[in-house]
Amino acid sequence: MSGDHRASPPMNRPRADFDAVVVGASLAGCTTAQLLARQGARVALVDKVPDANAFKRICGHYIQASAVSTLERLGLMGAIEAAGGVRSHVRLHTPWGLILVPPGARVTRSVNIRRERLDPMLRHAAAEQAGVELILGRTARRVLDCGANGVELADTAGQATRVRAPLVIGADGRDSPVARMAGLRRRISPHGRFSYAAYYEGPPPEGAPDGTIWYLDPHWAAAFPTDSGLTMYACMPTMDRLPEFKGDPAAGLESFVAGLPSAPPIGASRRVSPAFGKIKMPNVQRGPTGPGVALVGDAALATDPLWGVGCGWALQSGEWLADSVAPALRGEEPLEGGLRRYARRWHRQLAGHAFMIHDYATGRPFSGVERLLYSTGAQDPRVAERLSVFGTRSIGLERLLTPPVLTRAVATGVRARLERRGRVLAGKHQPRGIGVTARAAGGEAASSWEPAGGDLRAVS
User: Per DSSP, what are the bridge partners of residue 201?
Assistant: First the structure.
């Protein structure tokens, strides 16, 4: 990748006879277009926004480690590091203690870089890729014959152009006009939380460059150091807390974060962006394929941002689709076979994660299994490592909830209860309950939490 990626790429007029038309030139669309072109396809990459330097403004920017290999394949990691991107693990504050990635654990670090830097970088890389034609300032107005004959585009003056191709790819976000025009059904599940976030300049939070997440059960908060020495602070409370934010979202965010246990230094920091967020953000799941049509990124699955999966899954789904349909676009097999291959991989990789995410998105507190895993992870380095790998979406539920992990979790929980009971019998318990200080693998003491009346409450 060469040149200044913030300069506008050359614009060409739309033309027909492509192998694929990708509608949406953000993370998923640019990834799909590049990887298809590298495998011999001629790709039209279309976006309604005329500015090649545009970027998504309501986004948490975090790229899970599961997508790092995709960034490496695209050749973007060097540019991301040069732009100040931050590689990090995640520290988890839970009611049972602090969960850290154990020293020496085989857990890939995730990527933090703001969308205003990443989006233009990826779009210009796509524009420079041989075989990709970037067409900006055009809106997809109609899908032709269920996608099998391309799309009809319209410019800002309403002038229509037909771009013909055997495959139309919707990379156009959670509301996906391509999915609607192609008649692909969607399933919507409710969300019981709202979100606000902003970028701040100031002292780095404890543990930086690693990010920190607070599981307050059922509320959530986070601090993610990113490029340019900034930190994104975010929170996702349940809906009953919304009145605290309505008048001044930034003040509500700062008050919420400042009140966290082991709170980060948001009060000593200066906000450098508007507070951004969403009040209504239902989970939306589609297809992800139809006759002559495929969906990637949020068009296929727009899910709870609490888990930071959107950016990574946009990149990964674009890669899975390109690899699945490239042989068909070269004429080596029917397109239907490639689309079936993509749908199988998409479901295999994401369906389990989506089920768990959508269930927790209701705003419910942790289930018994979740409480068991997190409480054990605060004491057991092996379980902490497995939780960390799962949290980066590098493995699925079937590799998290294995019999050895569950057996270890139960054994650790029983041992902890016996130890507490022994302290009680020895008269060493505290007056208001039993203080439990969890230690991470490195031996650092975490916040102290005290069971009282069956609930877990912070006492430090």
Answer: 230, 270
Q: Which residue has the tokens 């068991």?
A: 372
Residue from 143, 178, 150, 154 nearest 164 by CA: 150
**pTM (2 d.p.):** 0.88
* Domain residue limits, the chain: 20-61+114-190+282-355, 195-278, 368-458
Q: How far apart are CA 347 and CA 25, in angstroms?
A: 24
353 contacts 308 by C-beta, under 8 angstroms? no
CA distance 232 to 273: 10
Residue pLDDT, tens place only, 35-85: 999 999 999 999 999 999 999 999 999 999 999 999 999 999 999 999 999
Q: What single-letter amino acid sits at 421?
A: R
DSSP calls for 271-324: E-S--EEES---EEEE-SEETTEEE-GGGTEE--GGG--HHHHHHHHHHHHHHH
Is 20-61+114-190+282-355's fold the same as 195-278's? Answer: no
d(Cα 351, Cα 42) in Å, to the nearest integer? 31
Q: What is the largest CA-CA distance in the chain?
A: 83
Burial of residue 316 (CB within 10 Å: 0-12, 13-18, 19+) is buried
Task: Tell me if residue 94 falls in helix, strand or coil.
Answer: strand
- Residues 20-61+114-190+282-355, CATH architecture: 3-Layer(bba) Sandwich (3.50)
**Sequence-distant (≥ 6) Cβ neighbours of residue 237 within 8 angstroms:** 193, 194, 219, 220, 244, 256
8 Å CB contact between 45 and 136: no
For 347, the enclosing helix (H) or strand (E) is helix 335-360
Give which of 114, 125, 104 is closest to 45, Cα–Cα: 125
- Determine the CATH number of domain 195-278: 3.30.70
- The neighbour count for residue 454, using CB atoms within 10 Å, is 5
Q: How far apart are CA 294 and CA 182, in angstroms?
A: 10
Render pLDDT for 229-255 as a digit per residue (tens, 0 to 9).
999 999 999 999 999 999 999 999 999
CB under 8 Å to 260, separation ≥6 — which residues? Answer: 93, 214, 216, 221
Asked whether the bond before 288 is cis by omega within 30 degrees of 0, the reply is yes
Alpha-carbon distances of 72 from 123, 129, 448, rounded to whole Å: 16, 16, 41
Among 23, 24, 22, 70, residue whose Cα is nearest residue 42: 22
Enter the tokens of residue 366.
């942790």
Q: Are 108 and 51 in contact (CB under 8 A)?
A: no
